[in-house]
């Protein structure tokens, strides 16, 4: 959380992330979602492992259920 506070103090206004654990951390710093994008395998990080993130909508964390 200290790093987030430094980012805010330096003028940070937005946080991009996948819908895993970061949205919870960001909300504690009073950030709110303003947009969501459906998961697209074409734009997944090169080393993205769906098995590792399987508990987040079968490795495709896109906010389908929110």
Radius of gyration from the alpha-carbon trace, in angstroms:
13 Å
Task: Kindly report the oligomeric state of this protein.
Answer: single chain
Considering DSSP H and I runs of 4 or more, what fraction of the residues is helical? 10-25%
Structural class: mainly alpha
The ordered string of helix (H) and strand (E) elements is HH
| Shape descriptor | elongated
Q: What profile does the largest beta sheet have? A: none
Low-confidence region ranges: none
Work out the strand percent.
under 5%
What's the average pLDDT? 89
- N-C termini distance: 25 Å
How many helical stretches? Answer: 2
Number of strands: 0
Q: What secondary-structure arrangement, pairings included, does this model have?
A:
Blueprint: H1 2-9, H2 22-28
């Amino acid at each position: 959380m200290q790093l987030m506070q430094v980012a805010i103090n330096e003028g940070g206004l937005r946080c991009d992330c996948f819908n895993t654990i970061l949205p919870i951390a960001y909300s504690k710093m009073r950030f709110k979602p303003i947009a969501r994008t459906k998961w697209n395998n074409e734009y997944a990080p090169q080393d993205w492992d769906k098995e590792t993130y399987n508990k987040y909508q079968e490795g495709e964390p896109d906010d389908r259920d929110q």
